[in-house]
Specification:
By secondary structure, the protein is an alpha/beta fold. The chain has 2 domains: 127 residues, Rossmann fold; 48 residues, no CATH class. Helices cover 39% and strands 19% of the residues.
Length: 207
């Protein structure tokens, strides 16, 4: 997301199907097509509901039936029945939970391989959160989903595998570095973790 920003500094490598995504030979636009992103706060475009879904495929040169693609994407996001009679209305007229599902529909419309979700429910009420979590369960049969969440109950409910990270602080350089503490099946992370730091966090001793 930042690799075209001149002041951005990148260290290390991120491998996707054996390819370093930060290689100079990799097209960032193609990466963004293959790896979709859903942000913490719903961010629909200032366009109609229909145009929010159609925007990405149009940019990617989609030549098929756009109406069918929009409908299919909204159905995958469990939103079609709620908006099918108001597709020309502004996306901003939707509720917060509906906007987030619209953003998920917009994401799947370009048929990515992976969907990254950054705290996708933190701005939503419990009912909308439940709908998003149900949606994740439905989508994971077709997509690899990586979700970042500070809500341990949510992680336990929706994930198959869990990674616990902490931050190390370098006071000399005033920098924080994320460190992977443990990665395992979700059930084991929450019931019998290997690392003491994981157990302390899960049991509420810190955090």
């Amino acid at each position: 997301m930042n690799d075209l920003v001149e002041t951005a500094r990148i260290e290390g490598q991120v491998h996707y199907h054996g390819v370093d995504l930060y290689s100079s030979k990799v097209d960032p636009v193609e990466v963004r097509r293959r790896i979709g992103m859903v942000f913490q706060k719903p961010n629909p475009f200032p366009k109609s509901i229909y145009d929010n879904i159609a925007f990405g495929p149009k940019i990617a040169g989609f030549k098929g039936d756009m109406d069918e693609l929009v409908e299919r994407s909204l159905q995958k996001a469990a939103l079609w029945d709620e908006v099918k009679d108001r597709l020309k209305e502004s996306a901003w007229s939707l509720s917060g939970g509906q906007q987030q599902r619209l953003c998920i529909a917009r994401c799947v419309a370009v048929q990515p391989d992976v969907i990254l979700m950054d705290e996708p429910c933190s701005a939503l009420d419990p009912i909308a959160t439940g709908r998003i979590e149900d949606l994740m369960q439905d989508l994971k049969s077709d997509y690899s989903i990586v979700i970042v969440t500070h809500n341990m109950q949510q992680a336990a409910r929706v994930s198959d595998m869990t990674a616990f990270f902490t931050a190390e602080v370098n006071e000399e350089q005033d920098r924080r570095t994320g460190v992977l503490v443990e990665y395992d099946k979700t059930e084991r992370i929450f019931t019998n973790p290997t690392e003491e730091r994981t157990e302390n966090y899960v049991t509420g001793r810190f955090g």
